[in-house]
Structure formats: C-alpha cells, structure tokens
C-alpha cells in the first residue's frame, strides 16, 4: 500500500475477473457477506470507521481493491470482528451496499426477514403435528408458487411402484407390503434389478 501512496507503480497483475470486496467475513457472532464491488467501499467508509479508505488510490476501484485485497482484508477484518453480523449488515445496507449475515439453518428459521417474506411454509405430518419447510425463494405475481400437497409418507406409494415398475399384480404387491412393510418392499425393488 505504501507504493500506491507514493505513486509508485505496483507490479501485481490481477488474474481473471475479480471485484472486491465480494466476500464472507467473520464477525463477532458468525459471518457476514459483503458485496461492495461498485462504489461500495466509498459508501462503507463511515461505517468502517475509516473515512480515508476512498482516498487511497490503491482502493479507488473494485479491481484495485481486488489487486490489493491482501492489504484491504486485514483492515476489513479488524472492522467486522468488532461488530455482529446484524450490525455490519445494517451499516452497509444504510449506505446502499449489498450485505447480509450468513445464517445457520436455525438462525434462518427464526429470521424476521424470512418470516416477513413468507418463505417458510407450514405443513402437517401424518400425525397432524405441524412443521415448517422452506418454500420457493422467488416471488412472481403472475405465477405465484403454491404447495399443492405434502411430500408422500414413507411407503405411501410402494404398492403403485411395485405394480408400475415391476409389473406385479395388485394382490402380490399388497400382500408383500402388508406382510413385511416398507423394508421388505424396498428390498424387493432393489433385488428385482429393474
């Protein structure tokens, strides 16, 4: 970074297409995803407590930040590790920078944002106990996604599979299924080599 500060050419080639920061960064309570590839670093400056970053010539463009990522990463790491994922996301989003906490499955299930979007769909198990599963992540007004039925129960279609795929008669399939249950039926399908 000293080279850039003194207007000396830095002899480092950027291989491939890379714009930075577009990265998962650790935070106090997990990880956060930051995508400040356009003018984002300039917008993040106040949130990062580093108002001088945008003036550094070596960080002026996304390609420069990628080329100098080895210098920028520890600076950003120092910032991200002093905040939670929610704090970083709020600071970045207030400045128009795409950013979000990287949730665990449990955190995602409890997220107010996920709940507000109606992403989790409620289903009932065969014992009538309800549970939630992810729905379709994309919303389209002309063709809204709907769940028509729950996933089949274990063994629910075994008789039909034995008939349609193996050519068994209904009585053969039902007698095997009734006598031995799902395990015997699944074994019969595997051993038939259809």
Walk me through this protein's architecture.
With 194 residues, the chain is α+β, with helices and mostly antiparallel strands. It has 2 domains: 2-102, 2-Layer Sandwich (formyl-coa transferase, domain 3), CATH 3.30.1540.10; 158-192, no CATH class. Helices cover 41% and strands 13% of the residues. It is built from 9 helices and 5 strands, in the order αββααααβααββαα. The chain has helices at residues 2-5, 40-44, 62-67, 69-80, 85-94, 105-110, 112-116, 158-166, 170-192, and strands spanning 22-27, 30-35, 99-102, 120-124, 130-134. The strands form 2 sheets. A 3-stranded antiparallel beta sheet has the order 1-2-3, covered by helices on one side. A two-stranded antiparallel ribbon has the order 4-5. α8 (158-166) crosses α9. It is elongated, with a radius of gyration of 27 Å. The termini are far apart. Residues 1-6 have low confidence and may be disordered.
